[in-house]
């Protein structure tokens, strides 16, 4: 609903209803879904801040039960209460006022103030009928609750408290009568008059009174000065004046001193300052009164400050103050926040405290129950209102209708609607709106549209909620003609085109009828939408999200607005939407229709499309976009390089990825983020670029990228063999100290590095950590067994082989190979043979590594027959010798003084397409030299240099 904004057309319009929640003068309930002209004015709230005499009744506000009467109500002052009298003379409302305490120092009423009392609350003689009418504006048929302030000698204040200056003659006349010998009462009267005329003049005169000793014990003057300073919002001066009032003038602080300050805060919604003055009031042990509580609670209700409202409410009850408005504000605040249980608790507290509800409070209670759909409790509240002598107005009926609608008790709602006539009331716009909402919520299509049309025929206008309800209802019932009607009403009401489109696509999208949207719009608003970029973007995005690509592309082709920047952002958003939904082909179609610039392509769109083509494994198309970017004037940024590198990684073109990274590193201003650093580490690790891995690791440290669990694991896995062991241990300890979890791969890498470095104590600690965390696998055992086997520590090797079996893992082929290699190189041929027998009993399938170990061990001994047997067995299993096998055989033939056979192996390698490496040439040359074939050895040495293989200078 936030997207639905109604713009009121210019010109005379329908009079607005009152809104108690937003009124700066009164307290009132927040009625959700309706408003009415008959809501009462708040009780006990501040009114005219100017009546501040020592024995003057200070009117802080009033409320009136606005029951439809033939006669205008009259107001009278009786026993410190303002009574609104109907034709029968019964009291309809009560005004809570502040009466000064009996300890007030000045008991005599200045003549000017006495005159005001005689003139009445509005400051004018009661004989003036016209002024009496201005006091009570709440008449039947009036649709707006006005807030009227009676003029005081031509002085007018706006809602912010600003004074409009009249004439200086009156002020000069008053000041001309004042001399240093004038009495305090005369000075106070002059100060009252000046304060009405100008805050500045009043404060200047207050300074004159101070200089002439007229402020000693004169609390009334300080009250007026505080009020004037408050309107200027000079809070520091107000605090100083309060201190001066007590310390210098020996005046006692009372609620009146703070009420003037709190009043201004309430008028201007300054809840922080209002709270400060109230806390200061309590700190100085000044007893608050009804006006204090009423103003604060009204302020907190407007600003929604629940915590301070609860604090003030608790203080009110502790002080035994009974302010009905405070209870109403508390109930309203809780209801507004959906805390209905607390609202009901506040009602119970009010009953227990013996506070008599007024009309406003009854309506607040009724609203609480109706908002929850608790119709039985709401009916009891209605009955109690009647029993207490309150005449039910249309607001009460509207509230009850809303309650029945929320409780889906539509028969009773209709019955209440029909009973309005017998109660002498006519349905207003809120009544009809509530009926539409109730039947719409219950999915009663016929009844809802009937009340919707009755609402319009009665001369009222549907509100945003009605439009939203009706569109959703029409979408569910597939009524396109009804949708045309409601859309036209929305346009007539001034709804923005984008708001209409938003409501329509949400409703029809939820109903699963998104395909009906375009035909509906073509019948009424389509041409207007084509000229509105916002409406087009909303509509196209909705179509793309619902996989209606043809409709989206049609609108993009037919649009009439031109805004290249907005258009590029729209296309990018659509492509990203398709990408997130996995609709890669749709993303490509949208991209192909997009207007393109060869010299200034959109970098973000190009990067997104490179990513899309990579996901589709269309790497050629992705690379084409990359080359277009390079050829254009675009400068690649971090995101672009990240996407391009990831594209080459997915295409398994790691060399190209390294080239892009090298190009990126030339731009010194680009610092990779965490994700690009991870890609760099994995790429360099797969390419075996240890130096680049080391450089990247120290770049990460320098850039101070925040390392998380993934980063730590990746650094150890990839850079473990490229950085010093001590640095690796440091980064691993740092990872553990920060509470990050390792994974099995990380621990296995550490085991391998520590094992090859001979750091077996660290290796065993890592193994114990892996076992405690349940991360030990067969690779873990193979790694630590290989480490001990290579170091010749046969005892530890056999220990971990036993642990491997105890853990439920069979002895792996890798473990057997490590044992064979270790025993063979150590010359323990009996154990070597025993391991071979175990492998045969375990039916292990020998791999190339197994045969190469056997060839190497037999070849070192010169056991050519055993070598031949291994070769025969290798070939019988359909396995051809690999490069390592040939290297081992050539070395064996050299040891056995069979150089001709070694040369034949070189020829055999060429036939089989196996390229010899440096070890191959080294072994062959060594075999020839061992057998004194020096000339042949020189020939092979020259041949090796011609082929580009560097000879390490092997000797016979």
UniProtKB/TrEMBL annotation:
InterPro entries linked to this entry: PPR_rpt (IPR002885), TPR-like_helical_dom_sf (IPR011990)
Residue span of region Disordered: 1-22
Keywords: Repeat, Transit peptide
Ranges occupied by PPR repeats: 358-392, 393-427, 428-462, 463-497, 567-601, 637-671, 708-742, 777-811, 812-846, 847-881, 882-916
Coiled-coil stretches: none
Pfam families, per the entry: PPR (PF01535), PPR_2 (PF13041), PPR_3 (PF13812)
Residue stretches spanning the membrane: none
Family: Belongs to the PPR family. P subfamily.
PANTHER family named in the record: OS03G0856100 PROTEIN, PENTATRICOPEPTIDE REPEAT-CONTAINING PROTEIN ATP4 HOMOLOG, CHLOROPLASTIC
NCBIfam families (alphabetical): PPR
Stated name of the protein: Pentatricopeptide repeat-containing protein
Species whose genome carries this gene: Urochloa decumbens
Organismal lineage: Eukaryota, Viridiplantae, Streptophyta, Embryophyta, Tracheophyta
């Amino acid at each position: 609903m936030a997207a639905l904004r109604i713009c009121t057309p210019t010109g005379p319009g329908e009079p607005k209803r009152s809104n108690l929640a937003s009124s700066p003068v009164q307290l009132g309930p927040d009625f959700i879904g309706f408003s009415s002209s008959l809501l009462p004015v708040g009780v006990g709230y501040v009114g005219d801040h100017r009546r501040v005499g020592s024995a003057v009744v200070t009117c802080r506000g009033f409320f009136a039960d606005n029951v439809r009467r033939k006669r205008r109500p009259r107001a009278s002052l009786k026993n410190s209460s303002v009574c609104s009298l109907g034709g029968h003379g019964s009291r309809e409302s009560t005004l809570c006022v502040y009466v000064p305490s009996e300890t007030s120092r000045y008991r005599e009423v200045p003549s000017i103030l006495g005159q005001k009392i005689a003139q009445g609350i509005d400051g004018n003689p009661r004989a003036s009928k016209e002024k009496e009418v201005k006091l009570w504006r709440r008449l039947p048929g009036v649709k707006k609750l006005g807030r009227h302030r009676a003029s005081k000698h031509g002085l007018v204040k706006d809602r912010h408290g600003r004074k409009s200056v009249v004439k200086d003659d009156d002020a000069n006349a008053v000041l001309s009568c004042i001399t240093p010998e004038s009495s305090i009462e005369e000075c106070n009267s002059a100060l009252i008059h000046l304060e009405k005329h100008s805050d500045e003049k009043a404060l200047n005169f207050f300074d004159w009174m101070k200089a002439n000793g007229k402020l000693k014990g004169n609390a009334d003057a300080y009250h007026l000065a505080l009020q004037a300073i408050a309107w200027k919002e000079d809070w520091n001066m107000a605090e100083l004046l309060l201190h001066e009032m007590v310390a210098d003038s020996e005046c006692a602080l009372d609620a009146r001193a703070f009420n003037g300050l709190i009043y201004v805060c309430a008028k201007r919604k300054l809840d922080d300052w209002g709270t400060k003055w109230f806390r200061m009031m309590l700190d100085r042990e000044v007893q608050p009164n009804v006006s204090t509580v009423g103003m604060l609670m009204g302020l907190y209700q407007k600003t929604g400050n629940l915590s301070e409202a609860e604090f003030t409410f608790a203080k009110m009850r502790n002080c035994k103050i009974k302010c009905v408005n405070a209870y109403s504000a508390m109930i309203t605040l809780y209801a507004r926040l959906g805390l209905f249980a607390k609202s009901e608790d506040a009602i119970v507290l009010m009953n227990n405290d013996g506070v008599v509800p007024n009309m406003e409070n009854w309506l607040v209670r009724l609203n609480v129950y109706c908002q929850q759909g608790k119709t039985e409790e709401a009916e009891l509240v209605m009955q109690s209102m009647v029993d207490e002598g309150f005449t039910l107005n249309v607001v009460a009926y509207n509230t009850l209708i809303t309650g029945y609608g929320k409780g889906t008790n539509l028969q009773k709602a209709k019955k209440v609607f029909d009973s309005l006539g017998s109660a002498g009331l006519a349905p207003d716009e809120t009544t009809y709106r509530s009926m539409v909402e109730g039947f719409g919520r219950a999915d009663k299509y016929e009844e809802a549209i009937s009340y919707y049309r009755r609402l319009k025929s009665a001369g009222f206008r549907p509100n945003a909620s009605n439009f939203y309800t009706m569109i959703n209802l029409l979408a569910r019932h597939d009524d396109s003609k009804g949708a045309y009607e409601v859309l036209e009403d929305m346009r007539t009401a001034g709804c923005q085109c984008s708001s209409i489109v938003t409501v329509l696509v949400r409703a029809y999208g939820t109903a699963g009828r998104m395909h009906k949207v375009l035909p509906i719009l073509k019948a009424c608003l389509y041409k207007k939408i084509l000229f509105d970029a916002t409406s087009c973007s909303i509509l196209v995005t909705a179509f793309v999200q619902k996989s209606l690509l043809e409709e989206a592309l049609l609108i993009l082709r037919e649009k009439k607005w031109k805004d290249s920047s907005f258009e590029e952002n729209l296309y990018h958003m659509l492509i990203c939407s398709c990408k997130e939904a996995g609709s890669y082909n749709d993303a490509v179609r949208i991209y192909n229709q997009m207007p393109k610039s060869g010299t200034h392509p959109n970098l973000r769109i190009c990067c997104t499309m490179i990513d899309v083509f990579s996901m589709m494994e269309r790497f050629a198309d992705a690379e084409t976009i990359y080359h277009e970017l390079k050829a254009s004037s675009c400068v690649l940024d971090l995101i672009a390089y990240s996407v391009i590198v990831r594209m080459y990684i997915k295409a398994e073109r790691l060399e190209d990825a390294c080239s892009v990274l090298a190009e990126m590193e030339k731009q010194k201003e680009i610092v990779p983020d965490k994700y690009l650093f991870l890609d760099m580490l994995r790429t360099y690790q797969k390419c075996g670029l240890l130096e680049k891995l080391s450089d990247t690791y120290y770049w990460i440290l320098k850039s101070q990228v925040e390392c998380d669990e993934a980063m730590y694991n990746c650094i150890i896995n990839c850079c473990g063999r490229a950085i010093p062991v001590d640095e690796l241990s440091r980064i691993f300890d740092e990872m553990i100290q920060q509470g990050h979890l390792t994974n099995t791969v990380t621990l296995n890498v550490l085991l391998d590095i520590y094992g090859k470095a001979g750091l077996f104590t660290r290796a065993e600690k890592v193994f114990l950590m892996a076992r405690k965390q349940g991360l030990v696998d067969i690779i873990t055992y193979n790694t630590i067994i290989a480490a001990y086997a290579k170091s010749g520590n046969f005892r530890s090797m056999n220990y971990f082989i036993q642990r491997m079996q105890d853990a439920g893992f069979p002895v792996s082929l890798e473990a057997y190979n490590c044992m064979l290699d270790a025993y063979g190189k150590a010359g323990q041929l009996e154990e070597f043979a025993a391991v071979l027998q175990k492998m045969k009993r375990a039916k292990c399938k020998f791999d190339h590594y197994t045969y190469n170990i056997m060839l190497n061990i037999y070849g070192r001994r010169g056991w050519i027959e055993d070598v031949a047997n291994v070769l025969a067995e290798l070939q019988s299993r359909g396995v051809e010798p690999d490069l390592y096998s040939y290297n081992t055989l050539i070395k064996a033939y050299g040891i056995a003084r069979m150089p001709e056979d070694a040369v034949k192996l070189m020829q055999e390698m060429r036939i089989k397409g196996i390229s010899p490496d440096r070890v191959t040439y080294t072994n062959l040359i060594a075999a020839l030299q061992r057998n004194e074939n020096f000339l042949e050895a020189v020939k092979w040495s020259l041949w090796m240099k011609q082929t580009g293989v560097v000879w390490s200078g092997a000797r016979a």
